[in-house]
Amino acid sequence: MLLALSVLLLIFPATLSAPVRDGCTTGKNKLLLISFDGFRWDYDRDVDTPNLDKMAEEGVKAAYVTPPFLTITSPTHFTLLSGRYIENHGVIHNNWFNTSTQEKKQYYMTQFVDEYWDNGSLPIWITAQRQGKKTGSLHFPGTAATYQNETIQVKEVEPRFYDHTDETEWFKDQDLDFVTLYFGDPDSTGHKYGPDSPERREAVKKVDRTVGYIRETAEKHGLSDYLNIIITADHGMSTVFKGEDVKEIILNDIPGFSLKDLKFHMVDYGPFGLLLPKEGMLDKVYEALKGGHPNLHVYKKEDMPARLHYSKHPRILPIVLYADPGYVINGFYVFQTNKGEHGYDNEVMDMKPFFRAVGPDFHRNLFVGPFETVNVYPLMCHLLGIKPEINDGSLDNTRHMLISDGESCDSGDVRESSLQNVFNGLAAAAGFLLLVFVVVTSYNGYKRCKITPKAKDIGDEHEMKADSKQTSF
Ligand SMILES: [Zn+2]
């Protein structure tokens, strides 16, 4: 096992314009977005988190945030990056699949399937670059893909077998306006040991140390006045029910249902499933499963509750399944061993991530109510001073966090911002530095390297070995 990256971030500001603490600050400061996978909203309640507490005192803390449904890693991260619900951005699962050839690619290999990510919604990296910003990304889902013939200017995709013991120098000699960082914990630990375990609490302590390290380093190099930091996650984690009293969901045991009636399926991926019945079998499959288990929700895609925003996209298969908290969906038999899972209804409190923000554009010591993570995108566009693409969020849901109340900048400010970008580029060429060192203290190889011998519906065994249980994301 063991994952827990620690990041040392050294950022030398290329341009030393004075920090502005009121009025229109749009685009004057740098932005760092950090995602700690699976960090549930309440994970700081049973662990001492001095660095996260300090960040809340000096910035903004939300009660929690609501991710989009489906509450799994790649789809929810792409919502953070695009401000679109999953049915609108099309990254509908962690895995790529082809229902004609039966081919499936696991989480890691899906990162390199450009057309899976690049299907109409631009992530903020590309939008920012087109408007003169320089962006970078470390390990964030979606980092590897090419979008409308553009890639992130400075990026590192997590290697498949990453030696996380070495110190890696990263982003050297770069002058970046916007950086995204991704950490695979506490998700991995939450899956393996459960969200209520001592191991999960240890993982949260590591997150806290990482946050402290990043902020101290930014402070040491005089960057705090020019750097906004947003820390959040993609989803939470819920304890999986175990034991003899638990009536497991096993589709093959439901009367009237047969896997033979399906052309293709995505089940055995935690509490969620997608089914493509064979020609003429849709109603039979639907009727058999509907009411087939008290904790199983079965919908034809067009009948999915509108609040879930998970029905419109053509990639979503005709029948959608999801389980109540604590349950997972099995095809033939129970082979999933995870003690924690996500992928449940996004209204379930266990699925809600945390949200913190600090920096020159944010109020200090402000506690705010919950909001949906589709709203993080317009907030980030505002902070960077860029024009957002069409999205499902609104700055109105986060502007109360900002010292400027999200006041719009007039076109004169935008022009000034563009000129400053030109200067930023020249400054970088002249040798100003923005350095990001990544120091890895330990890493949980669990989700990448653990072999799952019982996995039965994955065609590519080699890939399975590398990527392990798909539900770990
Ligand atoms: Zn995740």
UniProtKB/TrEMBL annotation:
Spell out the coiled coil positions from the record.
Answer: none
Q: Which InterPro entries match?
A: Alkaline_phosphatase_core_sf (IPR017850), Phosphodiest/P_Trfase (IPR002591)
- Where does the UniProt annotation place the signal sequence? 1-17
Q: Which domain of life is it from?
A: Eukaryota
Q: Where are the transmembrane segments?
A: 425-446
Q: Which UniProt keywords apply?
A: Membrane, Signal, Transmembrane, Transmembrane helix
Say if the entry is tagged with keyword DNA-binding. no
Q: What is this protein called?
A: Ectonucleotide pyrophosphatase/phosphodiesterase 7
Q: Which species is listed as the source?
A: Onychostoma macrolepis
